[in-house]
Structures
1.
Amino acid sequence: KRRAHAREWTGPAQTKDEHPVELLANIQDRAGAERAEASQAAGIGLFRTELSFLNTPTEPSIDEQTDLYRSVFGRFPGAKIVVRTLDAGSDKPVAFASVPNEENPALGVRGLRTSGIDEGLLTRQIDAIVTASAEHDGPNWIMAPMVSTVSEARWFAGLIRERGLKAGIMIEVPAAAIMIDQFLEEVDFVSLGTNDLTQYVMAADRGNANLATYTDNWQPAVLTLINQVAQAGVRHGKPVGVCGEAAADPNLAAVLIGMGVTSLSMAPGAIAYVGSRLSEVTLQQCREAAEAVLHAPDPIKARQTAIAILQGKG
Ligand code: PEP
Ligand code: MG
């Protein structure tokens, strides 16, 4: 039934009572941008630039990088595109941007931390993104992965704003979620990376199948942190997106909207599922479900309670 509904859903992206929701696509290259174009995505919420470079031994030139970004931006004229700077390291090893043989790469020099070793790698990438962005007639936002301190956020935002673009950070390290108010003062927007945030909050490797119950997207401890970030965004009047796997679960998507999240970014194939589910529930139901999951003792109960409320049986 859900599949039939999703097939028929053609938007607009909003709740049953017409509260608008921004549904965006996660992509990594031009082919992904083409899939996103064929979906109902309103734009790109996460462009994982590092995934284009997993098999690239040396740093591409600024011109080569510009061509790549241009090929993606060109598929979405007029639309918002959120580009993430290189998130190299750990589960996404990039030869030219990784520190080899770290004992604990998930806690190592990864994401924005790489620029502490080679700042030029980041600024050359930003220059390529800025050049491609100048030809794109929609808003281009740039965000950094794995930000853990306020000073990193301030430094990154300075680099981006002096080039005239909107600056954001991913919230995927618990420290950034805990201190969210101070981070929000430094940037224009934030995007929750629930995959890594869950891994670090639960101290459970995101890729380890034996730990799947810990990394369940409905873990109340993680949802509590997400709620704090979303509420802080509402207070500061700044956009808070979710671009991790949690956004692709239609019921959890409704919960996230209820918390105050302003956009959801996911694999293009999930957009119609999420869109059709949101069209069946009211914002009030989303808010009640969001409140309820915070009191659940475990992910199973959180999910059951939320679904009951979203189905009008709460
Ligand atoms: C995340 O961590 O949730 C995220 C969106 O980024 P990635 O999966 O690429 O680490
Ligand atoms: Mg991540």
2.
Amino acid sequence: MTTSEQLFEKAKTLIPGGVNSPVRAFRAVGGSPVFIKSAKGPYLYDEDGRQYIELINSWGPMILGHAFEPVEKAVRDAIQDSFSFGAPTRKEVEMAELITTMVPSVEKVRMVNSGTEATMAAIRVARGFTGRDKIIKFEGCYHGHGDSFLIAAGSGAMTMGIPDSPGVTKATAADTLTAPYNDLAAVEKLLENNQNQVAAVILEPVVGNMGCVLPQPGFLEGIRALCDKHGALLIFDEVMTGFRLAKGGAQERFGITPDLTTMGKIIGGGMPVGAYGGRADIMNVVSPAGPVYQAGTLSGNPIAMSAGLAMLHHLNDHPEVYTRLEEIGSALVNGFQSSLTKLGLNYTINHIGSMFTLFMTERSVTNFAEAKTCDLPLFGRYFHAMLKRGVYLAPSQFESLFLSVALTDDLISQIIQANEESLQEALA
Ligand code: PLP
């Protein structure tokens, strides 16, 4: 037994499923998860001393590679002044100013401790502001584990949300309407059938959570126009895309202005941080400026703010990071594509900047139904073949990879080679 396997056996007796977040358990790919001991730059190191090239980067935050020195130093310096005060600090003001500069649609912002908190608060604000109860979300979009978002779009779900997880009440689910991603007509129908009842449409402007799925031309513009027509707020969940697809996120890249934005991951430099913000008139309903209650003992925590500030300042001051991420993304995708062609495979690659997914299906993937046509056992074998070759992928077909600038050209070549060998091994 490896040390990771031993730890997993013990963990299962103490933690539900042995993990503190379900996807880490490798259920979607089989086998036993690797327990990570440390990481530096582009590498992860496990408890058995094995080294892996990182292609998830903590599900997004480590865009500059692990233990990036300015972030590490900011945290070390901040610790000298104690860990938490539960009182306002200068760093929170600096953070708010930096976010509103980098993401201009955000005029006011509130810091929280996770992406889940950010999306839960954003819909409460949308409901408080509009006086409406329902929200529209998209099948396959993940917005954290808040009750309102754990809703599947089964066949009946176009009109009435069906709880996806025991513990979510039918009453809560009924207020969440769902539509297929990239389907404007479905959204229009929901808005027309629920006149003056929809507080907000929330979506990932580029989806990471059914694998990487891009908005088709006109989709985001169409949603923006439908929201305006029906008086619903448009919420971009940029927990994954924020500060990644551009310094101003997907909204900058696609030139669409949402009313509210939720953020997480990169914003905390690897610490547990989220944020939500948007138009000042909307954000002014948040307590204590307004009546919509939302709070947090550790919100705006000084250590977390220090890490996030160091990360965001670096991104704001170094536009070349984004140029390099585009190069890395393109190089990997081109390499993967050449291997597919060489092996006579027609699988689909979706890609934008430093996010991409190789889907084990010959169909184009523009929504969750299409993503579900993938050969999942094949993905499981491919995942383990990559792991064996020292490349750490997301342990599920329905995830995007998140690249960091720490990837060198040499590492990119190694990943491309491992991908080609792993495809052959998985298909043998
Ligand atoms: N929104 C999106 C788009 C996400 O990808 C995630 C997490 O992956 C969340 C919200 C929830 O964030 P957290 O896991 O920090 O609660």
